[in-house]
Write a structure and sequence with these properties.
It contains five helices and no strands. The chain is an all-alpha fold and 122 residues long. It is flat, with a radius of gyration of 17 Å.
């Protein structure tokens, strides 16, 4: 990891914790706010620890883009949780054969960047 990339990653990590510190839930309830703040902190720790040994520059760039996207979406919608894809998992494919494999491949390719690591960790 280059020093510039390292600074960018550490800056994102600090930014997430600053956001968590100032976070207010959409409902305005104290319990919800505390729960969402803890979720933000725990999710950040989990994903940053998971990716701490990544050395491939392309993969590092993809992780940074995912982090930035999740921050922007969370701030825009005031929801810390990743926004789900609104399509049933096997809604487009037959239950067997090449069509199923093709649909699974298309679904994986078309997955939004802010959800790339969500299924791997959760």
């Amino acid at each position: 990891m280059t020093p510039v990339t390292r600074q960018e990653v550490l800056g994102l990590y600090r930014k997430i914790f600053k956001i968590a510190k100032k976070w207010q839930s959409a409902s305005g309830q104290i319990e919800e706010t505390i729960k969402e703040k803890e979720y933000i902190k725990n999710e950040a720790k989990k994903l940053f620890r998971k990716n701490k040994n990544v050395t491939d520059p392309k993969l590092i760039k993809q992780c940074i883009e995912e982090c930035e996207a999740r921050i922007e979406i969370g701030l825009h919608y005031n929801i810390p949780y990743p926004r789900p894809i609104h399509l049933p998992p096997m809604g487009l494919a037959h239950k067997q054969g090449r069509t199923l494999r093709h649909q699974e491949k298309l679904r994986k390719i078309s997955k939004p960047i802010y959800l790339k690591s969500h299924d791997e960790v959760s």
